[in-house]
Amino acid sequence: MIKNSILLITLFTILNSCNSQKKEDPLITEINTDISEIENLIKGGNSPLGISLSSGDSEPFNPENKHNFENKKEQQSDSIINAFIDSIAVDQTIIEPYNSIDIDFDDLDIIQRTGIKLFHYHDHPEDIPFYTMKNITFLDGTTTKAKGKNITDKEIMKRYYNGEELSDIELYVENKQAFKECFIIKDDKPVKSIEFEFTRFKRNRKTYTLKSKGDTINTKYGTIYLEGITNNSVALRVPTEIADFTELNALYKDGRSLKRTGGSESTSFSNKKKEYYKNYIDVLKKAKIEVAEKRIQTEKQLLKYIEKQSAPFKEDVAYTLLNVNYKGPVNSLKLTVSDIKSQKIIHNVTYNFKIEDILYKEL
To answer: pTM, whole model, 2 decimals?
Structure first.
């Protein structure tokens, strides 16, 4: 009898314990998770009030030290480009039954001559200039169009990446194309001259000057905000769409360009977007009450409630915050903004060959 009583008491205790430890409503859990994620998102998105500018370089700044400055230039005039094209070495090597035309063209050459940013072609491979062979004049006076008469390195690389077996001449090109732009003519007659098109890409650019916190630039992609200049550091809020196409040039008080020492970038929310997120959190908190009081019992009802209570939001512009450090104190900032779309520019060029310069090779 006593044993049965103990068993009943134990069962009663277990039942009470289970009832007191009810699981949280899955909808409440979902709402809490959403609130937490949005709060973290707001904290992570830098705001103008939350910017912390470092002092940049820790070494004492010496304006007499030329290594604290750099020569900023970008020259993409036709005369500069034509001089670059004319300076390129072009070799002719007869490899029976073919003729190999090797153009000693390196992206770094044009970068150094024109002042394009060092990693521009790495970040924007669509801007890499290239040659297209158009017409061939042989030493015997005959001429032919290059189309269908030559093998390009692009065709060979396509076959290579498709896993196709390459011929000896194709392997020759594949090995050389890392150093030179190589064209194979399907004829071993000596060539007197070749007409090429040299295609390059250029973006329209506008340059602005910013000096004080709060200065703005209105572009067709959105407004750029100077959030602050503190000693060696600059903070700039840029529309994300053009962050990669915005070049910063920090100027010392005498107008020289300061050398960059480092920097970072992060997502930056507009005040409009932060206000929307805060209002959205309020809607979620009210939804929790509706769930707790059983007026909302399904996920479908929850989504319908949130959709009804929160106005749709359309962010006109997404922003990126750029923090950049320099070698010395920044007096002003020269900003160059390039169009996202580039323009194609074609230069027609003819390369002539001397018979004594023709090379002969066997594979």
So the answer is: 0.64
